Amino acid sequence: MTRDPVTKLLLFGATGDLAQRMLLPSLYGLHADGLLPKELVIIGAARTEHSDDSYREFAGKALDKFLPADRKVEGAAATFLQRLTYQPIDMSVADQFKPLADKVGDIAGGLAIYLSTAPSLFEAAITGLEAVGLAGETVRIGLEKPLGYDLASSREINDAVAKAFPEDRIFRIDHYLGKETVQNILALRFGNTFFEPIWNARGIDNVQITIAETVGLEERAGYYDGAGALRDMVANHILQLLTLVAMEPPARYDKTAIRDEKAKVLHSLRPITPEDVGRNVVAGQYGAGASGGQIVRSYTDELGKPSDTETFVAIKAYVDNWRWQGVPFYLRTGKRMAARRSEIAIQFKPVPHSMFAGRGGMLQPNVLVIRLQPEEYIQLLVMAKEPGLDRDGVRLREVPLNLSLDHEFGTKRRIAYERLLLDLIEGDQTLFVRRDEVEGQWSWIDSVRAGWAANGTRPKSYASGSWGPSSAVALTERDGVTWQDD
Ligand code: BG6
């Protein structure tokens, strides 16, 4: 990989929730490990008034609060905070970009911009940046989600950005791609020979992708109620995971080869028709219950008004190409679920004939579990003989072959944003989402939403602390499939 590090990073949304929880701790982590370019200056920008000093104080507090204890390095906070400066800006006011450009100063050494802002401000931001010379050849731009709310709005955003930045300087962020175990899907599939011959409709019965959370609305009512689980999680993270599972082997580990293959998968997704919706899609909204060890209120109680926003969605999807013909991809995500768990489960076909039939012990098909959160491991469930003299027949039991990544590599866990921020600073687009991918994601999501609209679908209530509405269980059981690990 060729590295082309910038010397300045301009962080829009510098006082926001994401900056406090993720971006500042990630930048600190990179700084403490000596991974940031020595001369890198970070300019924070947001509406809130701050001087450089008061922003440093603000950032210091965020680090105290959100930095994991094992990432704190003696003395590193003070030197990190010295990298920060700050410029208040209301992006809807064109005049305010000039003082920002003055603050940023010379950009000959390269500038990376990280735009974490409401989509309604995207256009104003791009126009403002361009007008004051902050969009030239030495500038690259990182875009945080949401990139629109449907295909048409995402196109508008992409068009607006494209007026000032060519695609090879646009870095669309999906933080799931920064997760170590997500990148491990590529290593597992394309660094080994044994899975590939059966990684297709002949060898695989079904694929399950789950991102279950125990949190509820948090403080994000304004955004979340207008978005819902389908747009918030499926349109990006879940579909990105699906592409990594389903893609053809790329020729090289580079941004073009990998993203070409991912885009092809997205364009092969079978659109959901209004007729499919009732059968293959389940929308839910959490009611009161107990989640994460706490008694919690219903979604509408938290919100303070009635709402038809879905906080859970389960979908049976198909990738219409040779490799995946007829293989269901069961996708599921929800808030206030029974446990926090992100995982991919690949269920292989059963053996064609069991010689153990009638001799005790049912054969279970093999399952490959890739657990992304909260633990990081890869597990292959295989059948093994129970020890014994087999007087009553051979007894087989499913046991896991375990690859614990934490244990094997023992390295510290990084925040997903560390990887992505470093790649943005150094100019590597491989783990960022290309325009055709985003559009492929939205056009499929739009088909689901159109189906909901045509059917007048409203989310079904589910108890907080459960695995979603009972129809989500029926979605797989109807096919004789059980969600892995419920
Ligand atoms: C974000 C969503 O993109 O991902 C949130 O907007 C969600 O609603 C979060 O909670 C989940 O990320 P992670 O890394 O905690 O699984």
Describe the model.
- With 486 residues, this protein is an alpha/beta fold.
- It has 2 domains: 8-173, 3-Layer(aba) Sandwich (Rossmann fold); 177-477, Dihydrodipicolinate Reductase, domain 2, CATH 3.30.360.
- The chain has 15 helices and 16 strands.
- The protein has helices at 17-32, 52-66, 76-81, 97-104, 122-131, 151-164, 180-190, 221-246, 255-268, 274-280, 299-303, 405-409, 416-426, 435-455, 470-477; strands at 8-12, 41-46, 84-88, 111-115, 139-143, 170-172, 204-212, 281-291, 294-296, 312-317, 329-334, 341-348, 367-373, 377-385, 396-404, 460-464.
- The strands form 2 sheets. Strands 7, 8, 9, 10, 11, 12, 13, 14, 15 and 16 form a 10-stranded mixed sheet that branches.
- The chain is globular and about 80 Å long.
- The mean pLDDT is 94.
Strand content: 15-25%
The 3D shape can be described as: globular
Q: Considering the protein shown, what is the CATH homologous superfamily of the largest domain?
A: Dihydrodipicolinate Reductase, domain 2
For the report, how would you describe the main beta sheet? 10 strands, mixed
